[in-house]
Amino acid sequence: MNYEEITFKDSNIIKRYLQRKRLITAIQSSIKYINSMENMSICDFGAGNGELVKYIVKNYKNPLITCYEPTTKIYREAKKNLLNYNAKITHKVDDLPVNSYDVIFCLEVFEHLPPNKTKQTFDLFKRLLKKEGLIIIGIPIEIGIQALYKGLFRMNRRYGSFDANIKNVIKSIFMNPPIDRPIINISPGFPYYSHHLGFDYRVFLKECKNNFKIIDKSASPYNLFGLCLMPEMNLILQKYTH
Question: What is the pLDDT of residue 181?
Fold first, then answer.
């Protein structure tokens, strides 16, 4: 199956809804921190099939959009999906100019990256972002009550796999997620955790604080219910100024 079939066209209506709602929520969470919505230079980093672009053009006026998707197969999906949209689509990181972006979106990416790749990506963001630019990161919450309802959903689909294994789910419910996560090469030179389970947002937040200023943290898709219940978290970051 391609990327679209396991996300925005998944057979489960709730998953389809949440996949689209997370894009809308990420944009909405950033708007109050942006002075002007016109002619913004925006990078969707790890763009998947480029679906976020369709929501960016509805919320920003004349945005200058770059979609960066490093995996060849999904990059081709993005090109096909965005034929009628004015966006630069690339799978080459060297095509991303330094000090150029007002906003970088990075949604559902970091839970798949090994620690060394996370550090490399943070360093890259520091080079790509303008001085007052924003980074909007979306990550899943895979511990606590979220691990319970996500685990039940996954066990109903693929019982016994790493993220649908009773032992791993129970460990995650009790805030001790498994660390021996399966890793694959999704593309040459791109090691990739194939499951969300095992990602610990608490560890990730510490790395964020070491590299950026966290100016907002909210639950997704509905912040009203807080991080104790919602399946995802949005972070708004800026570079430290010295």
Answer: 95
